Amino acid sequence: MNITKIKLAYIGGGSRQWARVFMNDLALEAGLSGEIALYDIDAEAAERNREIGRRINQSPACLSRWNYTVSPTLSDALRGADAVVISILPGTFGEMASDVHEPEAYGIYQPVGDTVGPGGVLRAMRTVPQYETIAREIGLRCPNAWVLNLTNPMSVCTGALYDVFPRVKAFGCCHEVFHAKDFLAAVYREMTGEPGPGRAELAADVCGVNHFTWITRATYRAVDLISLLPGFTERFFQKGYCASNPNDPQSFRRGDVFQCGNKVKMDLFRRFGALGAAGDRHLAEFCDRGWYLDKPDPFGEWGFYRTPVPFRIVRQEERRCESEALARGLAPVKIAPSGEEAVQLICALAGRGARVSNVNLPNRGQMPDFPSGMVVETDCLFAEDTLQPLVAGALPPGAKALVMQNAINNDNLLKACRARDMGLAFETFMNQPLCGGLSVGDGERMFARMCRNTEGYLEGWKLD
Amino acid sequence: MNITKIKLAYIGGGSRQWARVFMNDLALEAGLSGEIALYDIDAEAAERNREIGRRINQSPACLSRWNYTVSPTLSDALRGADAVVISILPGTFGEMASDVHEPEAYGIYQPVGDTVGPGGVLRAMRTVPQYETIAREIGLRCPNAWVLNLTNPMSVCTGALYDVFPRVKAFGCCHEVFHAKDFLAAVYREMTGEPGPGRAELAADVCGVNHFTWITRATYRAVDLISLLPGFTERFFQKGYCASNPNDPQSFRRGDVFQCGNKVKMDLFRRFGALGAAGDRHLAEFCDRGWYLDKPDPFGEWGFYRTPVPFRIVRQEERRCESEALARGLAPVKIAPSGEEAVQLICALAGRGARVSNVNLPNRGQMPDFPSGMVVETDCLFAEDTLQPLVAGALPPGAKALVMQNAINNDNLLKACRARDMGLAFETFMNQPLCGGLSVGDGERMFARMCRNTEGYLEGWKLD
Amino acid sequence: MNITKIKLAYIGGGSRQWARVFMNDLALEAGLSGEIALYDIDAEAAERNREIGRRINQSPACLSRWNYTVSPTLSDALRGADAVVISILPGTFGEMASDVHEPEAYGIYQPVGDTVGPGGVLRAMRTVPQYETIAREIGLRCPNAWVLNLTNPMSVCTGALYDVFPRVKAFGCCHEVFHAKDFLAAVYREMTGEPGPGRAELAADVCGVNHFTWITRATYRAVDLISLLPGFTERFFQKGYCASNPNDPQSFRRGDVFQCGNKVKMDLFRRFGALGAAGDRHLAEFCDRGWYLDKPDPFGEWGFYRTPVPFRIVRQEERRCESEALARGLAPVKIAPSGEEAVQLICALAGRGARVSNVNLPNRGQMPDFPSGMVVETDCLFAEDTLQPLVAGALPPGAKALVMQNAINNDNLLKACRARDMGLAFETFMNQPLCGGLSVGDGERMFARMCRNTEGYLEGWKLD
Amino acid sequence: MNITKIKLAYIGGGSRQWARVFMNDLALEAGLSGEIALYDIDAEAAERNREIGRRINQSPACLSRWNYTVSPTLSDALRGADAVVISILPGTFGEMASDVHEPEAYGIYQPVGDTVGPGGVLRAMRTVPQYETIAREIGLRCPNAWVLNLTNPMSVCTGALYDVFPRVKAFGCCHEVFHAKDFLAAVYREMTGEPGPGRAELAADVCGVNHFTWITRATYRAVDLISLLPGFTERFFQKGYCASNPNDPQSFRRGDVFQCGNKVKMDLFRRFGALGAAGDRHLAEFCDRGWYLDKPDPFGEWGFYRTPVPFRIVRQEERRCESEALARGLAPVKIAPSGEEAVQLICALAGRGARVSNVNLPNRGQMPDFPSGMVVETDCLFAEDTLQPLVAGALPPGAKALVMQNAINNDNLLKACRARDMGLAFETFMNQPLCGGLSVGDGERMFARMCRNTEGYLEGWKLD
Predict the structure, then answer these.
(1) Which residues of chain B does C4 touch, with a Cβ-Cβ cutoff of 8 Å?
(2) Residue D238: Cβ within 10 Å count
(3) D302 with D276: CB under 8 angstroms?
(4) What is the Cα–Cα distance from D147 to D163, expressed in whole angstroms?
(5) Beta-bridge partner residues of D381
(6) Strand pairing partners for A388?
(7) Pairing of the two strands B66-70 and B34-39
(8) Is the pTM of this model over 0.80?
């Protein structure tokens, strides 16, 4: 791509804070410029972002000015794009409330509900039809564009892009692994008494499926960090340890629903000898229901929170207000580097220095023990117009069994969604680790209800 | 092999009725003859079988006379053998009682406990060391012999033979699939009103791992039997249906602990669209604990029994008495063809007609979606000195996820046993579907206890 | 299929003797009956066959009467068929003359020229477009029919059927392996002095690609036939040995262009330790040009003939006359069992007894060292409505390299033909072992000329 | 590794200029230091290098001083090493003269003769036994060391290290790909008129087997370099183009036997559409003998030289004299950065910045179309104590067939050497593309003669 005339299409994201972060970081990339075409089914949200973008351009700290536009259609946004960012909410929080909370009636308690478990299945069923449209439009309007998928369920969404348009240059981007690296830095600090490294200074081998990735090897200055974990676990398993605030490992007790005490991580380490590399609320959803989610509130025993959808609704409204204020010039625009990975990856693809980062791609050798074609998450090398996966080390055998089960489920779910095959969708639904113990009858009732609750968004599916 | 001078080594089996069946069927194979070398660590049991063999030879119905000998050592039995049958009990019923009943304290109820689940893991840990010895001796004494493994856990035991002596010509033999075929014959009878076929008349595609095999396709005279199952399930799921006695589908209610109402089979069919091809008590052990085994007695809801070890002890004593009586001439020897598969397979290998049968072998293409080297069960073609697997059809995607999880567990368990790796053994133990919901702490306590209970037979393992 | 109402569609074959053999053998299958729908672009030829069929029906020896019809269109012939036989000549012998003889100007001498080599490539380019039509029609008219492909190049044609209509139940049938088994029977006879077995009595492990298959293991009554080959080769390599006439191993010297002295087979055995299982004229085409085909006439050194196309033209005319005579009642119809394999396979699929036979199918595990999806030839089990490949033993490592090279070429050729990709077609052309030593310039000229010679049949290809 | 106390073991290399280059570049790596333990069976050569090392230490330009020692035994050199460099000559140039020139009697003309072809096979047979010893010693003395193999045949030697000691952290290093990148830079310069980039500025995707690697994709500032090749080839194919001297593309005509006009590269590009990434003399040896090596002197037609062994002998003596002069202080030591890759890779492994470089490793996913375990050459990421292969893009289908054939040959050759299996060695010998056209009889004679010529170094092989 011509780095002074880049066209970025930003699909969705209107209502998310992340768009602001993205614009903020881009504004600091001196030398890059071009157009950012915003498209959102909520046109107002896109327009708000355009206004924020314009105010960023006016900031004295801005090093890279972009032409922010709102596209009336998806096709317009994509036409001629060099890179595409997709970040959509399939349906509303109303649908998500059904995904997350309906299963509680059957004793299934999901902390997130957007990746796997009954909620993940329903969300995939709503999202894949939208991704089919996007993939087809990319094939028509910008077949050579780099496509960054930020939407969950990430494995299924990324897989859908490839299934519809096999030549797509898409990858799924997720930040969860970074927190696990921060945790390892804290482990180093606690166990050696030395200052902890920045996460980028660690050498680590990452692989798995999105939100159920594993760090199988990690070193910092010739110290094997994995070998520090048994001692660390012994010291901190009981009370938990949160790495967000270096001075207060107990900060997770203060009610921030995205924090955790990493007790699930430590428990999984005791089981498998590798480090689960995602937030505990995500990791728990891939495991047997009896391990971490047999009670409505896992905090007491496991130190993590379930994120209730009403909370998400309130938070979103707050953000909308903030955005509104920024857009109208009622709040000051501040620009500061946040290190947002997606911006770094676009820069690397634009030829501004190679970078290794963990992203989601169909397997074509990077996880040689796993079937070819399944979407997996591993480290990849990003360089000028190039994305090449690194061959990951092997998972510990026990973790491999668990990841494989979930990877096959994801793959079946994608097949079910692509074919709108209700039978296979239900089969995959019942096969979710969180649905263990559910009878076929209860499963049928619960699945039917979740479908009915969200049928307005189940495009192309036949409910009976 | 020279069919008039066959040497069969029979390792173990002294205390099992099956040896009698085997001798009975062999006696009816006119044209075959040779030596049957019996070896059992319970030398008395071997001698009893030799006496029974001699009486069979004297029977007027006997068509094929064999020279029955008792070998003082394993090496003697194996030396120069053309075929070897292995059927051992690793440890005593005392150990098996620990395998099966100890986990009950943690709410884990195993119907069999000799294949997977906590009991299966411990049994593998005891058996593999013995199989290492046997495999090495086969390599030295009869490297070209055909080796029939009848011991459980069958996948792990068969795998151990190949791991120690890669050129071994071994396969694992199991009768469970036959009952599933009988069940399908009954389905045909019930749903068409026509007389049911014999099991050998069905064409079926079988694959999976031992005791968790699946029939994915089955036809009889151009009728697709799988397509009859939804209707059959609707009619019989509630009350259950036992195929053992054609006139009494409710016969499983009469307390025979090896019978079942096939309700698990029907439930799994509703989940996955294929027929689990083993007894319900086996199938249930491979599934999430919440599906069929959340209560101590599964009979009420699921129509199958758990087999208590005290029952096995009583039954064995009865059989010992029967054998004793036969050996001493206090009971009449009756010979009649039972269709015993192991004898049929030996005949096929001896060149007396090709035969297709489902057996357990390391995967080398027969289940192409599964990793190479893992022991799997599929149909194979037996012909003169030849055993070739048939490439099986694909499992339904949901069943594949479940079988894969168990197959990886088996493979990890074999690795753990071969290396006497307590950590990996425990990891596999915790990964058993039946151990879902077990905390690491409880798991450690339970595992330690089960090890201590059986440590006399944990050859080469280091308990701490 | 209902064995009294079978519909067989016979596509092409009008001008080949083989149709008569097929009708002959079918007529002896008591219990089977139905319709045989003949379709040939040479309608007269189809009508001749119908008339012959009618006369067969009138023969007193006929045990199974069929209703022979001539279909006006391909669709009509296929509609509702239970089995389809495809045996077409892509183009005329004029095109084949170009395939076989044009390369002679560049020193490339092909004995057959219909499978690999420059002739095989051009033939594939003509045939695949026709197979695309047939595959689509099968998908529409008889998607569940069993499809027997007899047309060369067999690998590419069979692959095309699967590529266009993935659910097709097709396989490629070829008799060449039988001759290699006859040769092994002769080896047994010569080396033991005992009477030779019939080919069906041998146990053999067969694998490779069509016309370049290998027997890697063969036994008869516990005698390892492969181990007899070194001695046999020593005795007979110099003079050659033909197995067609047991009393005259030198009969291949009498000018029958389909006979050979098996010197190529023996030479390949010395190179690789396995038996090439096709006629020498076929085997030679898969090897380096310098091995067997560096001179216009290979007979002197290698004891096989090249089949000139003018010879084929004369022979075909003779057969047309014979058929004409039979059709008009000017020659007597004689029916006698010939053991024609295609008829036996249809009988097996119709449920009249299982049968193992070597056929061509996309690899899905039967040759585990070879990529999935490539068409390979191995033994398969045929039973009622069932076709299952047997997992073959490994090729000797050197032969594997050679077969792999040819298998990849075949696969590339199929891709080139499907996409009408002239560049890839030329690449594959140049990669043929027989094109070794050809410069790119000469290759381009020769390829262009062969395309122009046959352009009337290169449907959908763009020549410039 | 502790970067101030690195122990490097340097095995062999006594007589090669490369050791001097290596010491030179190391001397410029400020911050690194430690011991370099030299071991050579020619102890004098090792001592010469030690003296040169000492003089380098005294140079004012030296930034990194190393303790150079001569080890009396291989074990001493390896004990506790952090990194090992292996660069041995198996046998003397007398053996190499047999490898290269003996086959000329049969019309086989090898330009190099140390990788594939008859010479490569014999060289492997001599080298593997030595590598077995080295691998075992590494396992005992420095199992965690990084091992850089520089010896040819590189695929087989690297494979032997892994086969003997599977945990070895070895890779094969070769410079040939760099010249292909220089060539691409020249292509850019010629076709765009812009100044050519340095080779490190190109983005390229590399894969294949050593000396037969391919660049399948290459870009520089968003220009697709591969797309420039057709035009370049048209302009320069006739006269040839050498990239060593930017002002004189015809410089290869001046008799330097290591230069070439890249006509083979251009010819292969016309065949396959990808760029062969090694010197033409190497590439030619992997192809059909008729393509580039049907005449004793390929220069006239193909613009590359064969390197006669007498020339190597003269050159080596010159180098010995130079070394002698340097060691004795009769010539000035000059230090200047040469960019030697091996030093850069050691620095990367020591934690001084990540680097991507093409090296040889057993395949574990980096070439997903190739069998696992075969040694292949692809780009890999080097970082602190980490070596991870990048998953390479696919080879063009035609090139894949050719590379596969050679890769299987290499693999068979390694197996033959490990088992000292003369039959398999001969099979592989005959399967070399350069041995096309060789009769079995001639092959046997030639192979026997080459074995006898070199039998003093065929350790453990049984010649008859």
Answers:
(1) none
(2) 10
(3) no
(4) 14
(5) D356, D388
(6) A381
(7) parallel
(8) yes
| pLDDT tens column, A5-42 | 999 999 998 766 778 889 999 999 998 999 999 999 99
Q: How confident is the model at residue D301 (pLDDT cuts 50, 70, 90)?
A: very high
CA distance C179 to chain B (A): 21
Of the candidates A228, A257, A208, the residue with the CA atom closest to the CA atom of residue A401: A208
Measured between CA atoms, the residue of chain B closest to residue A397 is B412
Among D426, D439, D440, the residue to mutate for chain C (most C Cβ within 10 A): D440
What would you report as the CA-atom Rg of chain B, rounded to the nearest whole angstrom?
21
Do A388 and D384 make contact, defined as CB atoms within 8 angstroms?
Answer: no
Which of C440, C444, C445, C447 is best to mutate for the D interface (most D CBs within 10 A)? C440
Distances in whole angstroms, Cα of residue A227 to Cα of each of A222, A400, A450, C273: 12, 20, 44, 51
Cβ-based neighbour number of residue B254 at 10 Å: 10
Give the CA count within 13 Å in the CB-facing half-sphere of D73.
Answer: 7
Q: How many C-beta atoms surround the C-beta of residue D258 within 10 A?
A: 13
Q: Which candidate from D351, D364, D390 shows the least CB-CB separation from A381?
A: D390
Q: Does D2 touch chain A (CB under 8 A)?
A: yes
Distances in whole angstroms, Cα of residue D227 to Cα of each of D43, D201, D223, D295, D394: 52, 18, 8, 32, 17
Residues in chain D: 464
Beta-strand relationship, A66-70 and A34-39: parallel
Q: Which helix (H) or strand (E) holds D37?
A: strand D34-39
Flag if C203 and B367 touch (Cβ within 8 Å).
no
What is the token pair recorded at C61? 């020896």
Strands (E), C34-115: 34-39, 66-70, 83-87
Query: C402–D289: do the CB atoms touch at under 8 Å?
Result: no
Containing C416, the helix (H) or strand (E) segment is: helix C397-419
Residue in A163, A147, A150, A136 with CA at minimum distance from that of residue A413: A163
Nearest CA-CA distance, residue A184 and chain D, Å? 17
Residue B438 contacts A where some CB pair is shorter than 8 Å? yes
Cα–Cα distance, D1 to D347 (Å, whole number)? 11
Q: Are the beta carbons of C101 and C309 closer than 8 angstroms?
A: yes
Backbone dihedral angles phi then psi of residue C35, each to the nearest 5 degrees: -115, 145
- Per-residue pLDDT reduced to its tens digit, A303-351: 999 999 999 999 999 999 999 999 999 999 889 988 889 999 999 999 9
Counting as contact any 3 or more CB pairs under 8 A, the partners of C are B, D
Within 8 A of D392 by CB-CB distance, chain A residues are 388
Q: Going by DSSP bridges, is the β-strand pair C34-39/C6-12 parallel, antiparallel, or unpaired? A: parallel
Contact residues for C315 (Cβ-Cβ < 8 A; gap 6+): none
Nearest CA to CA, how far is D4 from chain A (Å)? 13
State the smallest CA–CA distance between residue A346 and chain B in angstroms. Answer: 36
The residues facing D439 across adjacent strands are: none
Pull the structure tokens for residue C117.
Answer: 């080599």
- Report how far residue B169's alpha carbon sits from residue B345's, in angstroms, rounded to the nearest whole number: 13
Name the residue with tokens 């308690």.
A109
pLDDT at A392 over 90: yes
Q: Are A288 and B436 in contact (CB < 8 Å)?
A: yes
The phi and psi torsions of C196 (rounded to 5 degrees) equal -75, 145
Residue with tokens 């080839």: D233
Radius of gyration, alpha carbons of chain C:
21
Interacting residues of A234 by C-beta distance below 8 A, sequence separation 6+: none
Give backbone dihedrals phi and psi of D307, rounded to 5 degrees, phi first: -95, 105
The 10s digit of each residue's pLDDT in D129-158 is 999 999 999 999 999 999 999 999 999 999
Joined together, the tokens standing for residue C101 give 């003889």
- Asked if B223 reaches chain C (Cβ–Cβ under 8 Å), the answer is no
